[in-house]
Amino acid sequence: MMNDKKSQRQGLNCPECDFFIEISIPQLLGCDDFMCAGCGLAITLDRQSSRESMEALSQLNVALDNINILKKKYSAK
Ligand SMILES: [Zn+2]
To answer: pLDDT digit string (tens) for 3-30?
Structure first.
């Protein structure tokens, strides 16, 4: 699956391990949190205080400004 169309992939890079978390906007809006498959970092969307930023989520790269990162690492590696 080596597509050149990187820009087609929706998601964000994990701030912890830089793993690309592939998640679509509907997915992101539909759940309160999600987890990095790379390191197990739990990322929680702070939707109450970021109502306006929900629009910014259409540019998911901005999303990291508006989410809370919970360090919940799994020791398995
Ligand atoms: Zn990670």
So the answer is: 555 557 788 888 889 999 888 877 777 7
Residue 5 located in a structural domain = no
C-alpha 42 – ligand 1 centre gap (Å):
8
Domain membership of residue 35 as a residue range: 11-70
Q: Tell me, yes or no, whether 77 lies in a domain.
A: no
Spacing, Cα 72 to ligand 1 middle (Å): 10
36 C-alpha vs ligand 1 centroid, how far in Å?
5
Domain count for the chain, please give it.
1
The Cα–Cα gap between 68 and 36 comes to 13
**C-alpha distance across the termini of the chain, in Å:** 24
**Domain-located, residue 23:** yes
